[in-house]
Amino acid sequence: MTKGSVRFEAVTKRFGDVVALKPLTLDIAPGTLVTLLGPSGCGKTTTLRLIAGLESATEGKILIGGEDVTALSATYRRVSMVFQSYALFPHMTVLENVAYGLTVKRIPKEQAHAKAEEGLELVGLKGFGGRLPSELSGGQQQRVAVARAIVLEPEVLLLDEPLSNLDAKLRRHVREEIRQIQQRLGLTAVYVTHDQEEAMAVSDRIIVMKNAEIAQEGSPADLYDRPASAFIADFIGDANLIDVEITKAGAQTEIALLDRRMTLPVASAVTGPAKMVLRPHQVRLSRDAAPDTLPVEVGYAAYLGNSVQYTLVTPVGSIFAITPPQPQPFRMGDTLHLGFALEDIRLVPAA
Amino acid sequence: MRRTAGLWLLIGLAGYTLLPWYMISGGFWSFHWLGTVFAEDASGLIFALSGRGWLFGPLVGFAVAGGVLMRRGGQLETAQGLVAAGALGLALMAGQGLVILGNGTRFGLFEGATQPGMGAGAMATAAALLFLLTTGVSGLGRGRGDAFITGLIGAVIALVATFVFYPMLFILVSAFELKGGAGFGLSEFLPRFFAPEIWSLACLTGRGLCGAASNSLMLGLATATGTTFLGLAFALIFTRTNFGAKRLLRVLTILPIITPPFVIGLVLILLFGRSGTVTEFFADAFGWEKTRWLYGFWGVWLAQMLSFTPIAFLVLIGVVEGVSPSMEEASQTLDADRWQTFRFISLPLMRPGLANAFLLGFIESLADFGNPLVLGGNFNVLSTEIYFAIVGTVADPAKAAILSITLLSMTLSVFIAQRKWMGRKNYATVTGKADSGRHAALNDGLRWTCYLVALPWAAFTLVLYVLIVFGSFVKLWGYDHTFTLEHYRRAFSIVFRNGIHFTGAAWDSYFTTLTIAAIAAPLTAAVGLATAYLLVRQKFAGKDAFEFSTMLSFAIPGTVIGVAYVMAFNFPPIELTGTGLILIVVFIFRNMPVGVRGGIAAMSQLDKSLDEASITLGANSATTLRRVILPLMGPAILAALTYSFVRSITSVSAVIFLVSARYNMATSFIVGRVENGEFGIAIAYAAVLIVTMLLAILALQLLIGRRKLRRADRIETP
Ligand SMILES: Nc1ncnc2c1ncn2[C@@H]1O[C@H](COP(=O)(O)OP(=O)(O)O)[C@@H](O)[C@H]1O
Ligand SMILES: [Mg+2]
Questions:
Q1: Do the strands A79-82 and A156-160 form a parallel or antiparallel pair, or are they unpaired?
Q2: Second-level CATH architecture of B505-704
Q3: How far is B615 from chain A (nearest CA, A)?
Q4: What is the domain class of B197-254+291-457 according to CATH?
Q5: For residue A160, which of B20, B210, B576, B708 sits 20 to 30 Å off, Cα-Cα?
């Protein structure tokens, strides 16, 4: 069944001279929540608007539910969108807002309103139907926008940074709600954000974009465990990127880190300079020297209650580490030895 | 696309085969043509078969379109076919219309053939061909594939081309025409264009009179500055203070807009003229010399300030209200005081609106005809010079054309400068994210400045209007102040004998005026707002040119439009002189730019994601326009309707050329009375018009009301 699938075939978008999207090919499976993640200006919103039909593709083909919609206007695409600014109609009540998409389809008013009530109930706003949007808090307005989009039972639900106007506590709550509603209704959803934690938390799959093209895509775990580039490694969960030299490629990889040589249980294809990905919580610190450790000095220490964060000064540059709280925390100026488990380490191309 | 095109094809064929092709003497609405088939009121098809072979042109277009639709080819192929069919049909139709006239033919084609002006059948046919074309264009993927949008664009272009460019062509032709039919060239145009009677600055050095263009320019700048300033003061009092008598103020600011021209000038003369009441008083009491200061720059300026301040106010009140309260609150929380908030936040946010008000004031002043005519004296301005060039003892259309080109270049450069200055800044403040703040109050200094500027002015206006009423009830103002109803009786008497008989002299023009204004106003608002919608919300090739051409009629003074219409629509293919239709048309295209500008200002304050939300929720463009944009544009619609209704009633410059015995307008009737020295009846008639318009405006306000975004518009208590 292809209902709810989205497919881009070499879609490009230019605004005059600005290339907002280089030839982009992507496939979104029905019923999944896919996140477009990337720094501001990388073309996420443009991609979303192309799916919605609010922009027309410069080149390429767009398919929704297996049907070519490249020339179809936004009105007739079975897609609804939650806007960053919510875009609630200020002259209509909450109920009228939610019922809008139904009434423009000439569904009788009572029926539309009943359905809109259900939608409001789904987002936990039962009884708020008679208010004007200006009489709701930001979080409530946001949920009205979601309700308005989902009562139409769209094939694809699009969300453009839906949480960016909410405070942090609320953000976690609302993103869980959105994810639950999406799963309960089995909707295909495309979610745009620049916040990697948010992306990891809600997505089945993440498409990371950079400079108007896809940098890497995969499940949250894929991206975290198998970053394809230094950019991804750093963007998805923090990472220390340490310059190393691959001396022998193959099923196992031999690397040189300063004067130390190690064999990592990961495959690699080419020899030469590379970067080693070391996640902050994979760093092991001790006062005692051991083989294959690096001598480091504590440059900065921050106690956060459930963890301690260190910035370490090392011969290979500054390294960021997170450790569980210890009975005797290290202090600024302490000299320590840094180690790691070889199976934790990933390698990415140097450039 | 196929369905829309099929519908238009049917409409077009019906118009072509059933409706009378030409203008018919009884008028279309008499329906006499229903009974007859082979007469002057036959359809296009019948005429084509009976000798006027050139009328087969549209049928060719329909045939191609029909063929394309039957073939059921691919989307692209069908679209291209429709474009070709529409373009071909329109070209053939326009060609025959421009070549074969009422009294002969042009360019030596179809020698000996004649035909009357186009009628209902031709109009339906042309519209159908146009929309076949635009539907095809939408099928090519333009305008995001939306036939409504391309159709709207096509309709506006066709209307502007027919009713602005086509008549203006006649003016241009006469400006560059060489004497004795020797063709066209610059040799006569240039020396006359740079003549000192147009550009002289002699009055500044005290040695003679300034040229008409210099005068217009100085007057325009002075009036625009003054009206913007006063309008802002009124708007601020209205929205940012708790001033007690806002209602009275509102009425007072509306009054001058609904005052027929000549009336303010007339009252000013009766007050400040050489033998005016005030002049006499000061001469008697203090022995002041009676001067003619009123007849010249200062008098015209005063009258224009009285006439056009309300227009600036109407523009600015929307702008001042549109500034998002949360911006002002943000500023205050950043420890800015009220003055700083106003100076650094509110005022810059109002800048586009202020520029808009200034532009309006400037162009109104340049195009103003009534006030300079009455008060100008030796102070010549372009608009009156154009008029005199045509109705003067020696009619000189070439001079009129040259003067209009001068005027046009001035207004256009202001227009362009204003756009450059404003840049592409986005001032969207009504967003989809609801806003529930309250507006900052003014600081004391600013508030008292506004009061000191605006309230005396309001009082002055009030006095003038009391005097208008007074003048309409006395025998002869200034000489015999005995109470009388005679003026009203002569103008508006009604006899009840075997039913009601409107025997007063003014009834005829009164009813005509109201009918025509009532028809023109909604049409103007519709055309204006539709254009604004296209300009603000749609992307399409040639948008800049489109905007320019829709705003062009804004820069054409009424006198010029009037003359151009007389020249262009006096003979086939479009023969409108002497009908009521020409008055409606002239009002629509004269007043449309104000609707466009108001619409643009209002619409660019609406967040674009509101329309996009509606579109993605499955509404088409037409529904979005109707259910989301229009309701949020309440004030802009109200302003457009009010403005065009009132301007249709009070305008005189263009109308004076276009009225006929059958369709006489109130203003030209009043001008006639003034020329005869019958001031009493003129003022009485004006008073009745003012009351009529006031009632109409109040009704409109109740009907449309204010947009309701916040439960209540609150103003911080000072
Ligand atoms: N309407 C537009 N006109 C011109 N450039 C645009 C327009 N919309 C987006 N862009 C450009 O396209 C690029 C991608 O924009 P966008 O998709 O909004 O980025 P993101 O949502 O990832 O922050 C940016 O460089 C932006 O400046
Ligand atoms: Mg974005």
A1: parallel
A2: Orthogonal Bundle (1.10)
A3: 5
A4: mainly alpha
A5: B708
